[in-house]
Predict the structure.
Amino acid sequence: MCGIVAAVAQRDVAPLLIAGLKALEYRGYDSAGLAVLEPGAIRRVRAKGKVREMEARYLAEPFPGGTGIAHTRWATHGVPNEVNAHPHVVGRVALVHNGIIENYAELRRALQARGHQFASETDTEVMTALINERIEAGLGLREAVLATVRELDGAYAIAVIDRDEPGHVVGARRGAPLLVGVGIGENFLGSDAQALVQVTNKVIYLDENDVVEITRDQVQVYTLDGAPAERATHESEVSADAVERGEYRHYMQKEIFEQPRAVADTLEARIGPHGVLPNIFGVAGDAVLAKVKGLHIIACGTSYHAGLVAKYWIEQHARLPVSVEVASEYRYREAVVPEDTLFVAISQSGETADTLAAMRESKQRGYLATLAICNVPESSVVREADLKLMTRAGPEIGVASTKAFTTQLAALGLLTLQLARQRGLDEARYLALCEQLAHLPRAIEDALALEPQIAELAARFIHRQHALFLGRGANYPVALEGALKLKEISYIHAEAYPAGELKHGPLALVDESMPVVAVAPSGPLLEKLKSNLQEVRARGGELIVFADDGATSLDGYAAKGAALSFESGGDFIAPAVFTVPLQLLAYHVAVLRGTDVDQPRNLAKSVTVE
Ligand code: HGA
């Protein structure tokens, strides 16, 4: 989602700001801009489209200046165009914003009544105008920002500069991420550590409602009431080469192929020959888990699918009731919370606005504890959870999530096993499941070897407008994830169904022009699934079947389509393994259709708005 970079330095900051925005491009956006202070003036350049288009304009007419702010926008209020792009400038003030101001309409009306004429349709310009009014009334930049953010409802991360206060940038955050990068004789603000990796690895994470003022040699944080506050400086682990694309054509392809490593890292030092190691969820984590009588898993998008797999796993092996819900629904509904229920939040970035808000809401609802499964250690979700298990996927740049999903499954596999053991799962079965989970990186590697065949298969989808995905049991969420990947990056309309549900409606859609992708691992549900596939065959649908070596005799079912089989490594880990060919399929279809694989239209990563 949109990105913020700001800098105060002795050197010219525009090139640094542009480099920072490029590092944030992975989040998805629709326009970009920057503003720099020159003596007595604000210089600004904005463009619809990519950072490089804005950069080209800047390079055509570069300007010097050591104080600046920059932004990539993912439009929420007003169409993506140059006028709505940030920074917004009103009078002396330039401002960039990530988030949504919910009371902007009434604030806008009040400003209009006082004679302000708006240039853009954004909620952001309202904030800019309010800060400018206060500065013109005599407040300093920091006081003006403090007074303004106190009036706002909604979410924001902002960076603000005042034409007449060069050498100062003021930032503030509530419900959207912002951190400080501490340099030598220069300081920065950024949406994440990635944006600043080229200038510093020393970072200060801001708390909710913090306001910060940076100058070249000072960083001072304030709480919302204006009192100075201390925040610790951390060494960020993000490295510049972790975000190189290397030999791969797209980040998504690279990240698909990083999965064996990412899953192995996630399991490392957490599972051994005798099972899951003690307290991997945090100090005294096992004691909390021993008390759990049920789980509510809350997430969005791909993470939600990981939660659905965990429901099958935990109910089967630990015999605990699990409900899984998308965060944007949960947060506004009066969910019933039985005693000793564990709240589990799953989020790649740990800044997903809906998941974070749901977790905050959960604190009022009487849960036993909160557990975060997340990829970013310093994120808000992790910092606010009681227990945590980090996935160790490394930076995920492709907007369509891949390695985050399989590492979430690895983490949820560990959770399942720990809960199951505590609830008396037979020792031999427990150890067999542990062995399967430990084998997951190898099994994913085997699945990746299917790439050449899948790339060929992808050609069948180029001119299709629709596709169906089928699975059963814990592999039904895998079908959901496969359909989501195809939708996200190839723009083909894809739906997933539990295979047994086909005859209750979607079968009406099946004819010769409908590809049907089936996830068919061996196991107790395979025979049932075969009957469902017969139903598709009988209607002339084109079946693409992914099976494992145990699921013999599926070739016939794919007479018009294709059947690919490989070694899945066992029924427990099958959902994680079968995800891989579906990721590869979506990827190759998108490449053939020529879409923007890493930054699909209309989508953003780290969804920090509601
Ligand atoms: N509401 C603002 C900022 C949107 C945003 O946070 N994008 O990620 C706008 O629409 O410009």
Remarks:
- The radius of gyration is 25 Å.
- Residues 1-2, 73-78, 84, 97-100, 122-124, 609 surround glutamine hydroxamate (CB under 6 Å).
- Residues 272 and 467 are 41 Å apart (CA to CA).
